[in-house]
Amino acid sequence: MKYENIIYEVKESIGFLTVNRPDKLNALNAQVIDEIVHALGEVKKSDDVKALIVTGSGSKAFVAGADIPEIQAIGLKDGMDFSRRGQEMTRNVEELGKPSIAAVNGLALGGGCELALGCTFRILSENAKLGLPELALGAMPGYGGTQRMSRMIGKSRALWMMLTGDMLDAQEALRLGVANKVVKPEELMDVAAETAKKIAKKPSLAVKMAIMAVNHGFETDLESGLFLESALANVLLGSQDKTEGIAAFMEKRKPIFTGK
Ligand code: COA
Description:
Helices cover 49% and strands 16% of the residues. With 260 residues, it is α/β, with parallel strands linked by helices. The two termini are 30 Å apart. The structure holds coenzyme A. Residues 24-25, 27, 64-68, 71, 107, 109-110, 133-134, 137, 139 line the site of coenzyme A (COA).
């Protein structure tokens, strides 16, 4: 697929996906979503890509939401499919099997906030803001925001954001655990890349299993979550990477992981 609205490149085992529609503050129309979903497929398939960084072009916005004129054209007949496609995008980033870092370089509103919430981590520049302002348009978050934001910060705080339109600034997002880090705008991509590289050195199968255990265990009762944890831990205990990791520790050398 030829990308027209995103830039996707791989540098030193890290994928960089930049939503690139700066004249529309990187708003997500159907074509942008198609391209993001396709690029996520590339990331998932490639053994060479160990982590993904998602960001937006320009200094003002990460992504300012779903494309408003496009929403205007959608009615009752297509609305569910529209929402499900956006959810597919946020679910695919969550279920990448590899860590994803939203490098939030400005406004992350509506679908942009939802895309960032689907990522494993969020690193915010000091000027970044997260918001779910859809209600002002007579719409509501439909790409996972009602579910992921309430799970992350609690029902009442999430509803406050939606019903008042108040945005979280970077420090508030950090305090609430939505942001993992807040950095100066000029340091954002370096910090995101350093974080991704740190994770990329870890055995990829173990990274994948840990993400799966947390993501899926979080959605269930403790006993089922513990059972899932044991099953995934068992996969790792039988892996070549575990044998290598422990042998390297005993032999006081650096491990060579294969992802098997
Ligand atoms: N969809 C489509 N286009 C959008 C957009 C969106 N979600 N958000 C911004 N744009 C476009 C604007 O229409 C404008 O395009 P134009 O120059 O062709 O008129 C361009 O991006 C720049 O935005 P503008 O509003 O002029 O910038 P601003 O600095 O005055 O305001 C925002 C920035 C983010 C506060 C404002 O654009 C906004 O409120 N956007 C909508 C946010 C939203 O409700 N998102 C959820 C959508 S469901």
